[in-house]
Specification:
479 residues; alpha+beta; Uridine Diphospho-n-acetylenolpyruvylglucosamine Reductase, domain 2; Cytochrome p450; 2 domains; 5-stranded mixed beta sheet; 18 helices; 12 strands; binds protoporphyrin IX containing FE
């Protein structure tokens, strides 16, 4: 493929009458609007069919003036997200829809504004700051352990819902030291209503504008107002009364731009806090839900994880305090190497949201000899790249040892990017990995968790790829 610095002039020449025209990528010749509902409801099957039929770069004409490109090859992901990232940015449709709930913030901005926010926020996610958040995460998991301990042995629970509750508890506790995961919590309820609305808009491009007085729009506006009000109150009260134990909000309040010495305004902090709650819980919850399902259906892998957890942490239970015997301390986490490979493999098979990373071309470009006109919208799909038969043997098989260093070293870097890549790479990657290791290791150490047999577990492919009707497991305290 062409990824040398001269390729943009090659593209400009594409329109010169003396040069042969570059071809457009292959794809269906008819507009796909009539098939939109299949694309919305069965994106895995639909994109998979297109990939198999047309190859690694597919042109999907949705309606006149709106064409989407599906990219499934690591070299294309590398070109768009890394080596030529300055030619691409997040598309307006994505920024505006996500912006309905988050406003202009790290996840929903580009350009100078985004760069400034990234500079301000990056230090709060450094490894040494994560050390401060570790004990908050352990406390949150311990409170779930206490809840499960109080249940009759063998009680059935929906582990997907439990993971959503737990990751919401963790993200709100690490952010501003408040648990918003309770059913009756006003902020948690407003967040759920607002998120449902945004997911609906993302997947229904023909839905009526927010300004129309429909009941759905009204409900969203009320929820957004509540979210803004409560988060702003938390920020203002924190400015008046700083806390002793650092959480993410206290780090963000202290953050100063190196160039100007300025911090964030209340409004900016409000948008960033809502962004972090939003980006930081559903993704990890979905990953963990599928990890439990994969472990439940691969008893040999579960046995190996259990063995590792008991060897590294001991079998003494959690003790009374967060540093009691059996706690996955910050120092012990890197020793949970097999458990980490299980998480990596789960993210390969089930990346939240199909691992779709949307981008729009800011200028004409050339990729693998094809002409990419300015304005083209790309879906870089890690779900398919991480199943590409050129780079993965038996791609549908669950095999954590693919991530042993000796097996991973031969794969191109962009064959696997569940956390994105390039300048927008996930700021919460280490947060999410630490959280997942803590949750899995504590719960496996304390409970035997078995899938309820004969249940139908289906993917809800809209937006986050959650299990549609949850995942039922039984939970027994270990002897
Ligand atoms: C398993 C869990 C997670 C996965 C798979 C995941 C995945 C991703 C991906 C693929 C991107 C890149 C999007 C793009 O380039 O368009 C991203 C960005 C982002 N993620 Fe995550 N994420 C996870 C957890 C988290 C957590 C825990 C947080 C915060 C606490 C977080 C906050 C963010 C933010 C703020 C961005 C935008 C970064 C930027 O544009 O500079 N994520 N994430």
């Amino acid at each position: 493929m062409s990824n040398n610095p001269g390729s943009s002039s090659a593209v400009r020449e594409e329109r010169s009458p003396t040069q042969p025209r570059l071809q457009r990528p292959p794809g269906p010749s008819r507009y796909l609007l009539p098939h939109l509902s299949r694309l919305q409801n069965q994106p895995i099957e639909y994109f998979g069919d297109m990939w198999r039929e047309y190859g690694d770069l597919v042109r999907l004409p949705i309606l006149p003036g709106f064409t989407v490109f599906l990219a499934t090859h690591p070299d294309i992901a590398e070109h768009v997200l890394s080596t030529h990232q300055e030619r691409y940015e997040k598309p307006d449709l994505f920024l505006k829809t996500m912006g309905l709930i988050q406003g202009e913030a790290l996840f929903t901005s580009e350009g100078e504004f985004w760069r400034k926010q990234r500079r301000l926020m990056q230090p709060a996610f450094h490894q040494k700051q994560l050390l401060h958040l570790h004990s908050i995460m352990v406390n949150c998991v311990q409170s779930l352990v206490r809840e499960w301990d109080a249940k009759p042995a063998g009680e059935e629970v929906d582990i997907a819902a439990e993971m959503t509750r737990l990751t919401l508890r963790i993200v709100s506790s690490t952010l501003f030291s408040i648990d918003i995961s309770g059913e009756s919590d006003e902020l948690g309820r407003a967040l759920r209503t607002a998120l449902t609305y945004v997911y609906h808009r993302m997947t229904s491009p023909l839905s009526p504008g927010l300004w129309l007085p429909t009941p759905r729009n009204f409900q969203f506006r009320q929820a957004k107002k509540t979210l803004d009000r409560i988060v702003l109150e938390i920020i203002q009260s924190r400015r008046r009364n700083p806390v002793e134990h650092p959480d993410l909000l206290s780090m963000l309040l202290e953050a100063r731009d190196e160039a100007t010495g300025e911090g964030m305004s209340d409004r900016q902090l409000q948008n960033e806090v809502i962004t972090l709650i939003n980006a930081g819980h559903e993704t990890t919850a979905t990953t963990l839900a599928w990890t439990w399902h994969l472990l439940g259906s691969h008893p040999n892998v579960l046995a190996q994880v259990t063995d590792e957890v008991q060897t590294v942490l001991g079998t003494g239970g959690l003790g009374d305090g967060i540093l009691g015997d059996g706690v996955p301390t910050f120092e012990k986490l890197p020793q949970l190497q097999y458990t980490r490979r299980v998480i990596d493999e789960s993210l390969r098979l089930c990346p939240p949201g199909l691992g779709l990373v949307p981008r729009v071309a800011l200028e004409d470009d050339e990729i693998q000899g094809y002409f990419i006109p300015k304005g083209s919208i790309f879906n870089i799909a890690s779900y398919f790249t991480a199943r590409h038969p050129e780079f993965w043997d038996n791609p549908e098989q669950f095999d954590p040892d693919r991530f042993l260093p000796e097996n991973a070293s031969n794969r191109p870097r962009f064959a696997y990017f569940p956390f994105g890549a390039g300048q927008h790479t996930c700021i919460g990657k280490n947060f999410a990995l630490m959280e997942s290791l803590i949750i899995l290791s504590i719960l496996i150490q304390r409970f035997q968790i078995d899938l309820v047999p004969h249940q139908r577990v289906e993917i809800d492919p809209r937006f986050t790829l959650r299990p549609k009707d949850g995942i039922k497991v039984t939970v027994q305290p270990r002897a």
